[in-house]
Design brief:
mainly alpha
């Protein structure tokens, strides 16, 4: 079983580091124009989706949930590409897309945490991340016009939190692969 994890630990770490950098940029430059922020967000989501697709394809031989990862990666890549290519879409639509992405991603994180609860002792980190993403998505749906700066800070916080959890999960995969 540990051979499975030997090549997979790097993907969540790369995804996590990229998320942390994205979050730090949003905290340092909250007044970025909405279009620039959305292009950065699009690039993050697109690259994150590509990492997830690579991970899903690598796991297809032994992971029954590989299709879930693949779907998540494809959805993230397409949505990220749309944000990057068409940043001038109306703010309200973009905010709802961010909320939907958080709800879908959070739900998948929760499902993964439940599925992996017996294999990894620190799977509760994924559960917390999933719950935070779902909560974020619900809040944005209820208050869609919270403002670009507030959304920038929230997205930055979510990205940093997600990045820390992803790096932790990758490190845990690396430890399991060494057993």
């Amino acid at each position: 079983m540990t051979d499975i994890f030997k090549s997979l630990w790097l993907m969540p770490i790369l995804r996590g580091v990229f998320a942390i950098l994205f979050g730090i940029i949003l905290f340092l430059c909250p007044r970025l124009s909405l279009i620039l922020m959305l292009m950065i967000f699009g690039a993050f989501v697109m690259i994150s989706g590509i990492f997830t697709i690579v991970m899903a394809v690598a796991r297809r031989q032994y992971d029954v949930m590989w299709r879930t990862y693949l779907t998540d990666g494809i959805v993230n890549t397409v949505i990220g590409l749309l944000f990057f290519v068409f940043p001038s879409m109306t703010s309200l639509i973009i905010i709802y897309v961010i909320a939907a992405l958080a709800l879908v991603g959070g739900s998948i994180q929760i499902a993964n945490a439940i599925a992996l609860r017996e294999l990894f002792p620190a799977v509760w980190l994924n559960m917390i991340m999933g719950l935070l993403l779902v909560l974020f998505g619900l809040i944005v749906f209820v208050h869609p016009v919270a403002g670009a700066i507030a959304i920038s800070y929230v997205i930055g916080l979510v990205a940093i939190t997600y990045g820390v959890v992803a790096v932790g999960f990758g490190m845990q995969l690396r430890q399991v692969s060494r057993l």
